[in-house]
From TrEMBL, chains A, B:
Superkingdom field: Eukaryota
Any matching Pfam family: NAP
Protein source organism: Carassius auratus (Goldfish)
Comp. bias (Acidic residues): 316-347
Name of the featured protein: Nucleosome assembly protein 1-like 4 isoform X1
GO biological processes: nucleosome assembly
Region named Disordered: 1-26, 316-362
């Protein structure tokens, strides 16, 4: 899955001066990096002219991305009614009509082995005995997605799960025109016993112009910073900390008292309390943490929010290089094959054109 | 370089019914693929309703990409004057003014070790003794790029190089509005002794709507086919074939005559004579060949054409996981570090947003 457009190998040194070589063989020792200074002055200045032209391209490109961003805002509006309907079906606020539930190319049906069918029938009886205590909407829709997607599952702690059962929707909001480019992830919760917020937010700020220092590295909008939000935990419900009791001895009197201290604890909800990005002198760990955080934000925006149901059913989960065929049951193998057809955003596939954050609303 | 959004591992089988489980622990055995049939009927039909909504999204997305394509056509027009200027400077048709050649942040200057400077001075004397036989434009600009980019260097044969010295420009042309989505690579050659064509073309046809069979795999426009062009080789100059002499004995008379046969031969110019894509029953080799061909076409369009000078100087060549630091000279190491900042299109980096073919003109 790590196909690359090209590989750069460090070869012998020395400038490449193709125009001085006559024999094709001469070219086989071409350098990876041309030392522009080994070019004749006349040629060197022309190459600088070409680099100035390249700068002009980079600036036009920045404008292009601004327009794509606007296009994306426009389409966000077109998708919204669909996402709203999804939210209502998931929450059980609306019951879809039979027509809305028709599923023609019912692949699952075909794949379903007979014994599984029997099993299913049995399970169903257990599930709703005479329809009693029938589940509302699609229970634990988002929690299930968190468990499916490894990137999210890695953040998920046991103590997060009962809280995420109350997660009812995740949306993305784009910055207004004229504002600095950014997007905001919004996590909507039903009233619950853990915190009083109805929505938790995470803002990702983006930079969409070439860097003055290194204009040629510009490849489109880039996440440069993020900001979480304060969670108003109910007393003793904050899962991002754990309480430890500590004995303290009074110097003078020697009496001993017990105090309670808060220590940080792993939790998905630390996602809303991110380390701040500092442009200069960022240490490696912090840089790694931020990269991961940006990756997660990007993934929510690009993949999870637009195609949540496919992560719920597993259809959007990609095939993995490292999965072991021996481990598979027939049924699963078929499933994984289906998933294999999904594109991996991390994999460069020239036949697909995975779009940038600024250019996608799927 | 193969960071992935998520990994799918084949876990134990059996449907995941989170809504029936009360304890968080229950969720740790979540399935990668939910067997929708193990959901209660009421929930199952809601999930189908969500999948129908997902189909609506995919269709809106297809419209989005059509608009991005239009945006890209618009920007192609904005880039054209820059590319034309590049072509003229490379060919030596125009001599840039001193102002056009000013290069402020002259990184190379800083990196240049003293001895290299001396070397450069020396080389220059050799290069143009009193400016005699001064090179026109930027000699072998495109050939040098072919040698730098491994993906292209792999196709390049010794016998191709003298021909590619005559390559003067590579451009991309987009399909007209209303036409099926495609892009055409155009390779412009100065008059030469090898073939009479002044331009060689390669058309890449794209599909930009969800596949009826597998709509959820839609991720944007996809290259589905390509078509090369006939090269009118001058007699005996076709480097895509080699001639072998063969003795033939006449049955009756027993006289022996020598005939010449053409056998195919490796050459970059086979790029213009591609195997055709056949939707059904494509054998693995053919599929591989096509994938590679699409990859190369995409790479010309997305990377080489928009930023040719950076491949000429080496600045656009990416750092490679597998390169061996021990091999590096100081100067080169700095160069490679610079390249390291370049994004690898094949590497998912959430902080960057590498755009899709339909969404990029850099």
């Amino acid at each position: 899955m790590d196909r690359k457009d090209e590989k750069s190998e460090a070869k012998g040194k020395g400038g490449n001066k193709p125009f001085q070589s006559d024999k094709p063989e001469g070219f086989l020792q071409v350098e990876r990096t041309l030392n522009v200074h080994l070019l004749p002055k006349t040629v060197k200045r022309r190459v600088y002219a070409l680099k100035r032209l390249q700068l002009q391209s980079a600036n036009i490109e920045a404008k292009f991305y601004e327009e794509v961003h606007e296009l994306e805002r426009k389409y966000a509006g077109l998708y919204q009614p669909i996402f709203d309907k999804r939210r209502d079906v998931v929450a059980g606020a609306v019951e879809p009509t039979d027509e809305e539930c028709e599923w023609q190319s019912d692949r699952e049906e075909e794949d379903l082995a007979e014994d599984l069918q029997k099993k299913a029938a049995l399970e169903e009886k257990q599930a709703d005995p005479a329809g009693a205590e029938a589940p509302r909407g699609v229970p634990e829709f988002w929690l299930t997605i968190f468990k499916r997607v490894d990137m999210l599952a890695e953040m998920l702690q046991d103590h997060d799960e009962p809280i995420l059962k109350h997660l009812q929707d995740i949306t993305v909001k784009f910055s207004e025109p004229g504002q600095p480019m950014s997007f905001t992830l919004e996590f909507f919760f039903e009233p619950n016993s853990y915190f009083s917020n109805t929505v938790l937010t995470k803002v990702y700020k983006m930079k969409s112009e070439p860097d003055a220092e290194d204009p040629f590295s510009f490849e489109g909008p880039e996440i440069i910073d993020c900001e979480g939000c304060k969670i108003d935990w109910h007393k003793g419900k904050d899962v991002t900390v754990r309480l430890i009791k500590k004995k303290q001895k009074h110097k003078g009197r020697g009496t001993v008292r017990t105090v309670t201290k808060e220590l940080p604890q792993d939790s998905f909800f630390n996602f809303f309390n991110p380390v701040k990005a500092s442009p200069e002198g960022m240490d490696v760990d912090l840089d790694f943490t931020l990269t991961t955080d940006f990756e997660i934000g990007h993934f929510f925006r690009e993949r999870v929010i637009p195609r949540a149901v496919l992560y719920f059913t597993g259809e959007a989960l990609e095939d993995d290089d490292s999965y072991d065929e021996e481990d598979l049951e027939e049924g699963e193998e078929e499933d994984l094959d289906d998933e294999g057809e999904e594109e991996d955003e991390g994999d460069f596939d020239p036949k697909k054109d995975p779009p940038p954050a600024e250019c996608k609303q799927q």
